[in-house]
Design goal:
This protein is α/β, with parallel strands linked by helices and 289 residues long. The chain folds into three domains: 44 residues, 434 Repressor (Amino-terminal Domain) (Orthogonal Bundle), CATH 1.10.260; 100 residues, Response regulator (Rossmann fold, 3-Layer(aba) Sandwich); 116 residues, Rossmann fold, CATH 3.40.50.2300. The protein is built from nine helices and ten strands. A five-stranded parallel β-sheet has the order 2-1-3-4-5, sandwiched between helices. A five-stranded mixed β-sheet has the order 8-7-6-9-10, sandwiched between helices. A hairpin with a 7-residue loop joins strand 7 and strand 8. Helix 1 crosses helix 2. The longest helix has 16 residues. The termini are far apart. The relative contact order is 0.08. Pfam families: LacI, Peripla_BP_1. This is HTH lacI-type domain-containing protein. It comes from Phytohabitans rumicis. GO terms for molecular function: DNA-binding transcription factor activity; transcription cis-regulatory region binding.
């Protein structure tokens, strides 16, 4: 038995199970050819003692720490938290943990976190942020894999996983055209956002293929800092003069199609029956009506 206040060791487990330390190690790691009753006896002893494997010793033995670092510039967490959750879901099966580091757009802080994570011998690093446009590589020739998620690296040799902004906007327009809509508006994020610019250009390019254009310049979202973006009021013709129309909302900082449709279609509460809305999102499926 262990002394009070001291964590159980593998030697304690071996002694309680009446086996060698090597046999206890094989039983706990699922290795070796052991009799079922021997393996079960070791597992029972480990449970009785509350034994937990030494992560540091395991890291030295296997050459990995089962940890991943995540460096972000998204202090609010609107984009980084979903990516963190996705990473934990994907890596959880391998019993890996994620260290979250907020660089706050500070190059010195980012460099500090990079050195700290490498000092902890993480198995990899995820770089993300609140903007999707390309950024310079976090550093060259890192000893561990580096993946850029939602944000991309300017180095084409780096691994970058980003939303297909242009493809999403094009698909939204294609859907509206397929259901017979021809008077189409576009509700998107702030004009200075790279993603909003890409979506708007792609939407117009797809409409141009059919000889069409947006019925007015893209409506943009405001109030994003408070996390409750609303589309800016748009100058639309009076509702009675409308033919069946539609709005494509490419989600950026809260500009959802269901929230935007009543405003762009001239209603304060609900979307008119003759209006269609569709949208794209990098986090969840588009809403269709």
């Amino acid at each position: 038995m262990t002394k009070p206040g001291r964590p159980a060791t593998i030697s304690d487990v071996a002694a309680l199970a009446s086996v060698s330390v090597g046999t206890a190690s094989k039983a706990l790691n699922g290795n070796g050819s052991l009799r079922p009753e021997t393996r079960q006896r070791v597992l029972h002893a480990a449970e009785r003692l509350g034994f937990r494997p030494n992560a540091a010793a395991r890291a030295l033995n296997e050459g990995r720490t089962y940890t991943v670092g995540m460096i972000t510039t998204d202090s609010i967490g609107r984009f980084s938290i979903p990516i963190l959750m996705g990473a934990e879901n994907a890596l959880g099966a391998g019993r890996m943990s994620v260290f979250l580091c907020d660089a706050r757009d500070d190059p010195i802080r980012e460099e500090y976190y990079l050195h700290t994570l490498l000092g902890r011998r993480v198995d990899g690093i995820i770089v993300t942020g609140r903007r999707s446009q390309a950024r310079p590589p976090i550093a060259a020739d890192q000893p561990v894999p580096v993946v850029y998620a939602f944000i991309s690296s300017t180095d084409p040799q780096d691994c970058s996983v980003v939303p297909d902004e242009a493809g999403g906007a094009g698909k939204a327009i294609e859907h509206l055209l397929a259901v017979g809509r021809r008077r189409i508006a576009h509700v998107t994020g702030p004009e200075h956002h790279h993603s909003a610019q890409v979506r708007s250009a792609a939407a117009r390019a797809r409409l141009a293929d059919d000889g069409l254009d947006l019925v007015l310049p893209p409506c943009t979202a405001s109030g994003a800092k408070a996390g409750a973006a609303r589309p800016r009021a748009c100058s639309w013709p009076p509702v009675p003069t409308w033919t069946p129309s539609s709005a494509a909302a490419t989600r950026s900082l809260g500009a959802s199609p269901t929230a935007c449709a009543p405003r762009v279609c001239g209603s304060r509460t609900t979307s008119p029956w003759w209006a269609s809305t569709t949208g794209t999102s990098w986090r969840w499926p588009a809403n269709h009506r």
